Amino acid sequence: MAFLPRCAYRAGVIDVALTPVDLRPTDVAVVIDVLRATSTATQALAAGYRRVMCAETIERALRLRAHGRVLAGERNGVKPPGFDQGNSPAEATDQRGEELVLATTNGAPAIVAAAGRSSHVVLACLLNLDAVTRNLRSRRPGDLQVVCSGTDGAAALEDVYVAGRLCAGLPGERTDAALVAEAVARAFPTAFDALAASQDAERLRAVGLGADIAACAVESVLDIVPTVIAARDGVATVGTAGGSPDAHPGADLGHTVRV
Prior knowledge:
Elements: E1 13-17, E2 26-32, H1 37-47, E3 51-55, H2 58-63, E4 69-73, E5 85-86, E6 99-103, H3 107-115, E7 118-124, H4 129-139, E8 143-148, H5 157-168, H6 176-186, H7 191-196, H8 199-206, H9 211-216, E9 227-232, E10 235-239
Parallel strand pairs: 1-8, 2-7, 2-8, 3-6, 4-5, 4-6
Antiparallel strand pairs: 3-10, 9-10
Helix pairs in contact: 5-6
């Protein structure tokens, strides 16, 4: 039996990529890696970093080292050799430079991939859930896909949960994948319950980083919308916008190109 390729969705349809494999070209992509890349990036921008440079690989991040840049990231949950700090929103609360370079196993590559396929990419987590929801409701995107970063190519419970919470706050027709995400969100009484039940949470507890689970489960305390403002050579540069779609960071992009 032959399967036809996925067609473009009508304007106003809300779709969810349960893993990055389902990522497709779209007007607006919302990338989620609640444990922990999008939470860390959001917290870093709220703390005062001008930009977060999401690098596709550890090696690419190391090549970005420069004065005023802080290298943050993880492999198997822990800080890689040569990095200044791990991929933790708690570590990102203290601004240690002008820019944060972020390299992670799943979230950073998903952000880079989305920036290569969508004209407008924002980052969502629980910390800025209300801000992203307001931004999208005001923008009224034609074709919207919420992208779950997942874990090593598989679906991640915590990302699907946040995707379902976000979809539930938006008007419009849903794809089956979006309905699945909303059903997952309804299955948990609190955000912490959903995050703590995931395999990624278990991995964090195993390496002594269980406190990050509660930190990432805090809801709607940051009124910013991290937005990809440039992408090139395996790096997506993220700046800030407020809950209103009219807000946009002014940035010196250097040798990067706008998307």
